Amino acid sequence: MTVVVVRPEPGNAATIAELRAQGLAARALPFFAAQALAWTPPAPDDVGALLFTSAQAVRLAGPGLAAFSDKPVVAVGPATAEAARAAGLTVALTGERDAAAVVEQARAAGLARLLHLAGRDRVETGAMVRIVYAAEPVAVDRDAVRALAGTVVLLHSARAAARLAMLVDDAGVSRGAVAIVAISAKTAAAAGEGWAASRIAAAPRDAAMVAAARALTRTAATGISGA
What we know:
CATH topology of the largest domain: Rossmann fold
Number of helices: 8
Radius of gyration: 18 Å
Strand content: 15-25%
Largest sheet: 6 strands, mixed
Shape: elongated
Structural class: alpha/beta
Oligomer: single chain
Order of helices and strands: EHEEEHEHEHEEHEHEHEH
Number of domains: 2
Low-confidence stretches: none
Number of strands: 11
CATH architecture of the largest domain: 3-Layer(aba) Sandwich
CATH class of the largest domain: Alpha Beta
């Protein structure tokens, strides 16, 4: 059974590589492409720390990030922390769950006046926000959608989940022929019901999604039961 990754690049390629390293057949079908947006940085003195809830925001923040190179970084998870370090930033805190949890950790650690550099489609954190990128829909061929029958689709966002449901329904593909792995309960809910199987990753991490996909593929020979 093939696992299909619909997240934007460069995350798409990273997930494909991890799936293949685990011995799984995988292919890419991005639903969105990330594009940098112009943004106006606040005064550096108004910022105590940077908050990143996606590695994409680090990569696409552009020249405006230079003004905050001395600020500590709060990262939602290891991949985001790695991207921040690659950009020459100092990571003070790396979360293990989600955005709300890492913001709570940051405040408990005395990291105040957070500047959340984020995508247009983002979680609310209560921090000062600057939108530095947007993930825009790309055209998806109907034949590629029909080819999703018999696969496991990894869903890294609620937007991707909603778009999968729309594309599958419009192409006349039975949801019962497609299994999904969602990064969170919110993402699974956005996909709706009727899938061959619906699993939520044990943690909002790529590694947990890959593990869930691997478990689903192992049951393929005897049939997949919904959840």
